[in-house]
Amino acid sequence: METLYAITVGTLTACSVYLILRARSFPIVIGLTMLSYAVNLFLFSTGRLVIDQVPIIGAGEHYTDPLPQALVLTAIVIGFAMTAYSIILAVRVRGEFGSDEVNEPNYQADKEDKR
Amino acid sequence: MLAQHLPILPLLIPLFAALLQLFPWGDNPQFYRRIIGLVSCSGLIVVSVILVLQADTATLVYAVGNWQAPYGIVLVVDRLAAMMVLLTALLALPVLVFGCYGEDNLGSHFHALFQFQLLGILGAFLTGDLFNLFVFFEVLLISSYALLMHGGGKKKLRATLHYVLLNLAGSALFLISLGVLYGITGTLNMADMALKVAALSGDDAAIARIGGLVLLIVFGLKAALLPLYFWLPQAYANTTGTVAALFAIMTKVGIYAIIRVFTLIFGADAGLAAGLGYDWLWWLGLATLAVGGLGVLGSRDLRLAIAYLVVISVGTMLTTFSMANERAISAVLYYLLHSTLVTGALFLLVDVIAEQRGKTASRIIKGRKLAQHGVLGLLFFVAAITVIGMPPLSGFVSKLFILEAARTGAQVALLWPLVLFSTFLGMIALSRAGSRMFWHTLPGKATDIRHAAGQLATIAVLLIGALVLTVLAEPISAFTNAIAADLSHPQRYIDAVLQLTGGSYE
Asked: Following CA atoms B488, B490, B491, B497 in sequence, which dihedral angle do they give, to the nearest 10 degrees?
């Protein structure tokens, strides 16, 4: 189970890094979303992977660590808000500049200065 | 009764102020929002002064919801945290007053965002829990994303996009490092983690070191250390003066986090993880200094030049900090106070200058004479010699402390030339900018945009702060010496939080 889990997290991270390095805003947003999934899975695993146990000490033979679950929940909420904001921002940039390249080579500050 | 809850007041005040400001306040909402904001910032100053006085006698530990450390989240007010809170409050009030002269009308919800920003910054200073630090980082980042866009415009949009994407990646790294450290130590409380990290051995220690270094990358991104500083000049140069001035404290949050974590968790007592990252900080800090100096010299816009002065200050502080002796840490803290106030003043000043110059704005070229030529020239002169570090003001004193802190031959050989050379470059750049803007003006009538005396007074107040730092250099450096002694003996912090020898919380 640990191996499968590690491969999943690793693949997600690798794909997200590839997408982020594309330097176009939409792939980057998708990449960051995938990265946050990978991070959430990783955080979840830091309490050690346990199946079929309750997060209460003494309720069974073993217990699962409740803290990573709380952390992941917080991270999901924050990540969700961030994704929403970055999508809006990406849409605005696309509308204003007519391109979704993050570092558009033709973009120069002089355009505005000349006005 | 209230005294017991004092440590959480710096969070509750801006939080409730922001919530109140979000109410629809009838026909003239901005009036009420300004009042609430000003009351909140004044209240913060009062509370933080009391906190500094109390923290000087004993470290205050506040267990939120009365869940004791290491299980609950604690707020810890030691000398360092109290000083940072006071500094934030002292910066926030003049900046907000400046903003109330019309800049807050450029976009919606400026005031609420300002308070949320303060909430995030103060929370980051006060918390004693690493995951809670992440949450407050996010609070301050979310509001800074929106504040950067304040006023709108294409350049801001581009700078904000870069800033947001970079910081989202930074947040992901932050969570990864927290996961690594939690997985190894099983705790998120900083004091408890310090004890656990010190007891690690073998592979566990190696993994904890990796976690610590990832954490350094994250804090380096916030503090704008060399390979990660590229967001800063664009972001600071394109936003409005009030926001940039408030952001003067933002890089300091990163520096505070580095100082806190790398003295407490990865400090001298950390066993196999001791002294983690100090070599990196030394070399990257020096490189940041050099690049910042070149950036200042190469800037054709005054705002950009000041943004690069921020980069120089970051390099100076982190290099000095990495020397890891008590004098060095004390010098860093004194420099931090000075640099925050004076950069804040400069950003506000450039805003005024740019507005009065009209079309040429803040670009360093010949322009029309300013309407309030004399006052602005004087303010610029004072701010410039302070930020460069010429005698007699606080910049000089703080650079003296920093140079004095270098002890070994290698430290002196590298730190002195770089600090002095970047000072020299800054001097050239600012004197060029000053002479172009104030002396080589185009013949003819001065521009007719004038600024209210109150608005200029806020800049003067921040500069008077620098003057006070100079006059009271002795007691203030005594206080920063005490902080440095605390940081060099992390056991004091750990004892206070975990109540090993009985903290101040009953």
From this structure: 150
